[in-house]
Amino acid sequence: MSLAATYPYYLANEAVAPNHDLEVLDKFSGEVATRVALADDDAIDRGIHAAVEATGAMAAMAAYERQAVLDHCVARFQERFEELAAALCIEAGKPIRDARGEVGRLIDTFRIASEESVRIGGEVMPLDISPRARGYSGMWRRVPIGPCSFISPFNFPLNLAAHKVAPALAVGCPFVLKPASMTPIGALVIGEVLAETDLPKGAFSILPCTRGGAARFTEDDRLKLLSFTGSPGVGWDLKARAGKKPVVLELGGNAAVIVDEDAAIDDAIERIAFGAFYQSGQSCIGVQRILVHADLYARFREGLVKKTRSLRMGDPKEESTFIGPMISEKEATRLHGWIDSAVASGATLLCGGGREGAMLEATLLEDVPPDQEVVCQEAFGPVAVLSRFDDFDAALDQVNDSVFGLQAGIFTRDLYKAQAAWERLEVGGVVIGDVPSWRVDHMPYGGVKESGIGREGVKFAIEDMTELRMLVIRTPSA
After folding, report:
1. Are domains 6-251+452-470 and 256-441 of this chain identical in fold?
2. Quick one: how far is CA 406 from the chain centroid?
3. Domains of the chain: which residue ranges?
């Protein structure tokens, strides 16, 4: 399992390798796995200019032509399935089974976009609602918004880039994409596949660059939409600097799950252990807060601790590994400090808590003071906190007691409680009978409060990447 020695970036549809300045590390070994060309300000400017120049040609593509591009991507990603999974395993430290799951979702996302590309419609609407509008009729349709700017994160290097790229291709928007510098390979492979198609010159540029170089992706007025996935601190700052362009932000979370008194304990334990620790906890909707009814708490805690201790930690390239490295030793050190701080403040460490380099053990805590960072901030690593409740309504209030609001999970068989959760929880999505970590790629996905604005999911991203254009027709009276 290895990567190519070097990778180019993609500027106006073409592979370009002016340098190999960006080192990409194997996140488990810490060794340099490959090198990538790094775009400078001039390359970024040329990429934006090319996208502007391609706007007309992209908008003029017929629906079947856009669909053909997306279908080509689906076929090529299927052919390169194991190669893509191996790249994820190395550059992101993602356990190989999780990596294969992400490649499957990449394919799903492009397939959904292919389907949506030929059903972007409009509506005929009556306008004669009063005497002054007699003889008028109207219709509207969606048109591409124009050149788009995309910034994708490190934790899902393939699929979170796909959630920006695939809808843009479906509607005919040229784009520039900045992948995360720690995990650029997945996006560059997408670029390699797109370069095999007949997209108009300038339709796409995929340009790894420094954070300073990314300012153009945000501030340039030639770009008509910014879509960013990443941390809240960065995201809200980008929005403030984006000017007049619409901004879509998919930011952080500290997702909660409620286990009510009628839940099937064994099922809840299995799903919550997965939701808290898959991807080594590096997911915006990973389970971080676990609220369990007092009548079940002791049995649930015992079962979850046992399950957590059984999760194998190690080399992500091995099939049996469930917990791999965090993205960097710096991030593992940060989260380990949060765990130590919680224990020092009176929390009980139920299991885990150890760290070696970027490897942090799957960790469970209970009785954590609510002001501790591991409760009130986004952990983004393999740690979760347990607490008990007696009253379901109070548990809903506790879930809402957060600056974040991405998704929540509820294990209950009570229809009325499920309905109450859907009505009252201040989140973008409520999942009944499962963890908040569950998602399929055509559903509307996004959050409220500090978790962002706008929604992903191909159909819903298409709405952001298009504008409504109205046609009014007057028929003169005879």
Report:
1. no
2. 11
3. 6-251+452-470, 256-441
Mean pLDDT score, 22-41: 97
Residue-wise pLDDT tens digits, 254-266:
999 999 999 999 9
Within 13 Å, how many C-alpha atoms sit on residue 469's CB side?
Answer: 8
* Active-site annotation holds for 250: yes
Which regions of 80-121 does DSSP assign to beta strands (E)? none
Scanning the structure block, which residue is given the tokens 């934790």?
155
CATH architecture of 256-441: 3-Layer(aba) Sandwich (3.40)
The one catalytic residue in 91, 102, 116, 250 is 250
Produce one character per residue of 434-453: b if its CB has 16 or more CB atoms within 10 Å, e if not.
bbbbbbebbeebbbebbbbb
**Candidate list 91, 284, 329, 456, residue with the active-site label:** 284
Q: How many CB atoms lie within 10 A of CB 477?
A: 6
CATH for the stretch 6-251+452-470: 3.40.605.10
- Give the residue ranges of DSSP H helices in 385-457: 392-400, 415-424
Residues 6+ apart with CB under 8 A from 452: 232, 235, 248, 249, 250, 251, 406, 446
Compute φ and ψ for 338, nearest 5 degrees: -65, -40
The C-alpha atoms of residue 317 and residue 156 are separated, in whole angstroms, by: 17
Cut 0.85: pTM above it = yes
